[in-house]
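Journal club prep, notes for RB
We'll compare a predicted complex against what the paper describes. Inputs for the Phenylacetyl coenzyme A case:
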Amino acid sequence: MEKLHDLQEIFQARIDADEKIEPKDWMPDAYRKTLIRQIAQHAHSEIVGMLPEGNWISRAPSLRRKVALLAKVQDEAGHGLYLYSAAETLGVDRETLIDELHTGKAKYSSIFNYPTLSWADIGAIGWLVDGAAIMNQVMLTRTSYGPYARAMVRICKEESFHQRQGYEILLTLCRGSEAQKAMAQDALNRWWWPSLMMFGPSDKDSQHTEQSMRWRIKRKTNDEIRQQFVDATVPQAEFLGITIPDPDLQWNESRGHYDFGPINWDEFWQVVNGNGPCNRERIRARVKAHEEGAWVREAALAYAEKRKARNAAATKVA
Ligand code: FAQ
């Protein structure tokens, strides 16, 4: 018992000294569990996040837009792969994680349960959703678990390209005809509040924040990053010339931040618990893709087995 207590003290001292924790290091079970939960949720979000945008690849308005969107969607698949790999270093296997997604046991970001109704939505996702993801993920490049922190560095660089391609789509629409500007405004109206929800419940209702901050898995609270996002995004909306759909939004001189209106937490929990506009459709699409890709996994595994056998035979001969 005493030994466990010592290990925990040493572990916390390493965290407090900003050392990275690596896969073979001792770590408390709850730290491991929290990381698996968060990294898996993050990986699932990247993979499910391909669906709303994938919906527009064949309808992109020009070849240039199509190439950029294709590259972005492929990047999200790559992010999912780095993150599943980071989760695997904690002793969980990928099949289990994917199974938990497909059976509704695992969560993924609420934002991907909203539909993409117009081309402007692709701009809004890049600008707002990738913008929100970056705010959160820049903090995670300094998270205490080494493999997660390192995956985040590359992911952030790619997300930053995504954010710019989204903003540029909206800038083009907002400098275009009245109808194009109206499309951009409509996209902002629909994506603004769900984007603020991405940061998770407010600090007073967040179950995990306090402990995750102590372990330096999280470096900022949900409300802190949400505020940072609002402060950075309001001037960008002003530059576009479109209006954030919040009558309570105003600069607060004494706080040095924008005040904003109340978030509809009932909607958030409905979406998180499987009752958003597209939850069922998203999981159905993922399960279908997994089933249809079974032959690829089988072929890859068979090839790996064959190579292993060939290498073993060659070693024997030598
Ligand atoms: N949606 O106590 P907290 C992206 C759950 S990546 C669904 O505050 P925590 C890239 C939470 O899991 C977007 N569930 O939890 C891209 C917990 O439930 P549990 C994803 C949510 O972990 C762009 C419960 O509520 N990014 O977008 C959400 O300390 C474009 C209580 O919450 C990440 O995952 C939500 N929004 O803080 C891809 C970043 N919020 O597990 C394609 C890594 C909370 O106890 C296109 N994750 N919940 O059953 C994190 O930083 C954290 O996990 C938070 C939540 C901040 C999301």
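Talking point for the session: The radius of gyration is 22 Å.
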